[in-house]
């Protein structure tokens, strides 16, 4: 829609023009009316209409004088003159004032409609041109802003010479170099396009990526020269209020102290980043200040011994429950342990990851007595939220519980499978025997012998000997090792005994077998 201002000193003509055409059908709204040139000028300044229809001859200030003054302030307004004077002097002056059209009185409906349609086309062209100009300006400003933000990213993260970066910023953006700065790290619940965050700032802030937290952005906001140290937190609270009006989802904003200038912005950024990481890790929504983080750290330091003592006892309890496969009790104990972590918010991500990794190692040794699992610390440190860590540990515990429960159900199969694996691994040892294997699988030699014979159909000694002969046959066939070396490789130091057993299995001596294989 376009707006129109009607300026006419004759009341009946003025009111008649308001009802003269179906303005709405033409896409025009009546913004207002005025009784003379003086009021017309004032209304034009107040309403900024797209079109002005005005009489020429009026008291106080005529239409030509009013149009000249309006043109100086509103160059895009379209002006249509109404006049009962058709002499050339008025027409020539109207044209010199860039009149878009003029209509002679008495006004005929069709003539007025035709004039308005011509003017509307002019208005459409002006709007299109202004939109194009605004897009060009926006692109230019966006390009300049991107260059400034790239330099800010280098400055905040310590890339390059800070004095050189500040000098480059001084050329591009004086405001940043002459005012205190508020630095904050904004962490939305899910990654958002930069445009969504920029809407909160109304172009008053500069945004740069924050690679340390997925989906986060860093905002740098120029403050007033008399800014107090808590002004950054105050602006963050205002942003939070704007966010809540747009979304019900939680938002975390980390802030540090205001930076007196660009040279100190890196320190302010590190404080804001640490506060944001602290807030995200413990699930704290809203504004999180570096002071809040420091207070939590100091508070934990006073309670750390009691916390660690309780944690160690709880870890021991979980291990005992796992040994006896008490699933419900394990979950309850884990819930208490995780709640204890959440209530000690100053412990820090790295310390918590170390404690959880220690729990995993202790529990893994129940399943693997050869040293347990030592490789989970990097996975834990790669998580930014305590909830992720706790979920990861809970999944590990559930998986371990399921495997141990399956092992208990299939205990015989497990013992036999492990015995076979041990035989394969230790076949080169002269000490390989039923007693040694029984020690490894934590059962008596007699019990292992019975289980093995029942499952495999052979004694442990027979299986060991068959494995040694199979391995020795492979070595003699595929290598040029001496017979004595092959015997040693399969754990048989007595060469004559080795040769005797080999001949029983394959019908020829080891030397004859190897010679036959080499001829092929």
Automatic annotation (TrEMBL):
Q: Which SMART domains match?
A: HTH_ARAC, REC
Its main localization is cytoplasm
- List the Gene3D superfamilies hit by this protein, alphabetically: 3.40.50.2300, Homeodomain-like
What are the protein's UniProt keywords?
Cytoplasm, DNA-binding, Phosphoprotein, Transcription, Transcription regulation, Two-component regulatory system
Q: GO: which molecular function terms?
A: DNA-binding transcription factor activity; sequence-specific DNA binding
Q: Read off the CDD domains from this record.
A: REC_YesN-like
What single Pfam family name could you report for this chain, choosing any that match? Response_reg
Annotated GO biological processes are: phosphorelay signal transduction system
One Gene Ontology cellular component annotation held by this UniProt entry: cytoplasm
Give residue numbers for the modification (4-aspartylphosphate). 55
Q: Where is the HTH araC/xylS-type domain?
A: 417-516
Q: Which InterPro entries match?
A: CdaR_GGDEF (IPR041522), CheY-like_superfamily (IPR011006), Homeodomain-like_sf (IPR009057), HptR (IPR051552), HTH_AraC (IPR018060), HTH_AraC-typ_CS (IPR018062), Sig_transdc_resp-reg_receiver (IPR001789), Tscrpt_reg_AraC-type_HTH (IPR020449)
Localization: Cytoplasm
Per the database record, which ranges form the Response regulatory domain?
A: 3-120
- Protein name, please? AraC family transcriptional regulator
Task: State the species of origin.
Answer: Paenibacillus mucilaginosus K02
